[in-house]
Amino acid sequence: MQLPPKVTDRAFERLSEIGAAEQGQALRVAVEGGGCSGFQYEIKLDAPADDDLVLERNGERVVVDSVSLPFLSNAVIDFTEELIGARFVVDNPNATSSCGCGTSFSM
């Protein structure tokens, strides 16, 4: 059974800090073909679409399109601040391998 991805409190807090909802935007997490491992994540601010899964907390939203959803089943969407910079990240249990940059994976 496919479970929707989870979004951490830290990720929702970051969306609130950058004022995503105030701008009518949500964090879009999508999976596309390509990247060094076969698939890559696209993470950007975007307006929600009709067929999106919407994960919402305190007015902030994270959206996933219906094509990407199976690839993100039970994944965790988080926000991290490291030496290389602050960014949204996806911890995906479906990925069998990933590249060093963390944006590309295979299944």
UniProtKB/TrEMBL annotation:
Molecular function terms, GO-annotated: 2 iron, 2 sulfur cluster binding; 4 iron, 4 sulfur cluster binding; iron ion binding
GO BP, sorted A to Z: iron-sulfur cluster assembly
Pfam families: Fe-S_biosyn
Superkingdom of this protein's organism: Bacteria
InterPro entries registered for this protein in UniProt: ATAP, ATAP_core_dom, FeS_cluster_insertion_CS, HesB-like_dom_sf
SUPFAM superfamilies linked: HesB-like domain
Entry-linked PANTHER family: IRON-SULFUR CLUSTER ASSEMBLY 2 HOMOLOG, MITOCHONDRIAL
Protein name: Iron-sulfur cluster assembly accessory protein
Source species: Primorskyibacter sedentarius
